[in-house]
Design brief:
globular, mainly alpha
């Protein structure tokens, strides 16, 4: 079973991609779907970064960013852990493998909801580890999982959801680093 701590970022990315290929997930990582995914992902990433930046003005959000534990090696965190071990790997597992299998088994309406719910539940250990509210984390990441699934389906490429996912996590990491550097 793949967990968030299974192997190096490269191993997690390769294994999750192999699983997506094994279930014949429509990844859309070749042109012309790739171009659509890049366009959709870039536009979404820009919007995500703007929203995260705006949220730093909210005192409660800023306090949470200030209290967030930053990994010992922030460069590795931002260069490998977030984009490869988290965004790519989770998109392959949830939007590649799980959404594909769930849609085939349950249909195009229920399948994405199942994938999104699983994505929300996947974040329970993270919420507990950092002291975030579990229910709130499950709901927010579940909604994000549904949006990521919609982006992948709408663009025809999982690259759109990878870019949106990475943009959210990276911009939140940068915001936390900036907020903490000012204290």
């Amino acid at each position: 079973m793949i967990t968030k701590d299974s192997g190096t970022p490269a191993v997690r990315a390769v294994v999750s991609t192999a699983l997506a290929v094994a279930v014949r997930a429509p990844l859309g990582i070749r042109p012309p779907r790739l171009w659509s995914g890049l366009r959709t992902g870039a536009v979404t990433a820009g919007a995500v970064v703007a929203v995260v930046a705006a949220l730093t003005a909210v005192p409660r959000v800023r306090t949470g960013m200030n209290d967030r534990r930053i990994p010992a090696d922030p460069v590795r965190w931002m260069a490998l852990e977030i984009p490869v071990a988290t965004a790519w790997t989770e998109e392959m597992l949830f939007r590649g493998v799980l959404q594909t299998v769930a849609v085939r088994a349950l249909g195009p309406t229920v399948g994405p909801v199942v994938q999104a719910a699983a994505f929300g539940l996947w974040h329970i250990p993270d919420a507990r580890r950092v002291g975030d509210p579990v229910l709130g984390t499950v709901v927010v990441t579940g909604v994000a999982g549904w949006v990521f699934g919609w982006l992948a389906k709408h663009s025809g490429s999982v690259v759109a959801s990878v870019l949106a996912h990475a943009a959210f996590n990276e911009s939140a990491a940068v915001a936390a680093l900036v907020v903490q550097s000012r204290r």
